[in-house]
Amino acid sequence: MSERWQPRRVERQVDILRCHAVIRQLRPHLREPDRFLDRVREQMGAGYRLACMEAPDGTVVAVAGFRRTENLAWGRFLYVDDLVVHEAWRSAGHGRRMLEWLKQEARALGCTQLHLDSGVQRPDAHRFYQREGLTLSSYHFQIALGSAGG
């Protein structure tokens, strides 16, 4: 299999920007590439990492954002903030390949678990996660607090 189909970490500015079009399919509010770059760079300072998978022609087909973290409930774990396959490339095994890479990355970072949240409006993603062995283990609650500093 071509190296292009192997997920890899993304750190260079040009590579982060190449992920923008795919991540927008999951995070449509991130319209501006420069703002996306700024947010990724800021989050990287707190441990966020970005990975992508490319087709042989260099097209980014999948993107994952993740971080290694630790808490009292689960110990050390990998949290997947973002996981998306470009809509034109779905149902071809790329999500599975990216998720397997994330599991390997988690093990390499000393994690004993992998966690992610998925919006209730994404039933296709939920079926995928369950098919891949992830279980629905909790509910996530939230409340909007308004603008920070205002």
How is the topology of this model organized?
Layout: E1 8-10, H1 13-18, H2 20-26, H3 33-44, E2 49-54, E3 60-71, E4 75-85, H4 94-108, E5 113-116, H5 123-131
Provide a descriptive summary of the structure in words:
It is built from five helices and five strands; from the N terminus they run βαααβββαβα. By secondary structure, the chain is α+β, with helices and mostly antiparallel strands. It has a single domain (3-131), classed as Aminopeptidase. The termini are far apart.
**Count of DSSP helices?**
5
What spatial form do the alpha-carbon principal axes imply?
globular
Tell me the Rg in angstroms: 16 Å
Q: Provide the spatial order of strands within the biggest beta sheet.
A: 1-2-3-4-5
Q: What is the CATH top level name?
A: Alpha Beta
